[in-house]
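Recall from the previous chapter that SMILES is a line notation for molecules. Here it describes zinc ion.
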Amino acid sequence: MPIKLDSIDTAILNALSKDGRKSFRQMAREIGASAPTVKLRYERLVSVGLIKSVSPVLDLSKITRTAKDKLDNNLTKTQTNQIDLENEILLDVDCEYCKAQIAGKPLTLKILEQERFFCCTSCRSLYKEKYRGRIDALLSKESANNV
Ligand SMILES: [Zn+2]
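With both inputs in hand, we obtain:
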């Protein structure tokens, strides 16, 4: 007998379709249910096989084709859906601050485990300045967790 999905189930599906990395707590807040409820419902949706996996949505236009790919046109069909991990993958990245595509070697700023990319030192420092509060909050939260 089919199970009936209620508004909590559909809200979870919608939330995950938009952002698969959302935490149970975040979804609970948005949906107006408790985090344990959201977790149970999520697990049910997985166990009935409706949610097969939560996977990243890739923007393959960000990938610069390697010289080998250009020679091997037969690969293009499979590569529209999948990335060939055998080849070197070059990813075009946009500057986190000015949003322009980075032409040269990107400068990085590592906050905890997350790396952000910038086109130049001034973008990097402007970004640091703009988000200082948020960065400090992240870092202090992390050090509080380590105590
Ligand atoms: Zn920039």
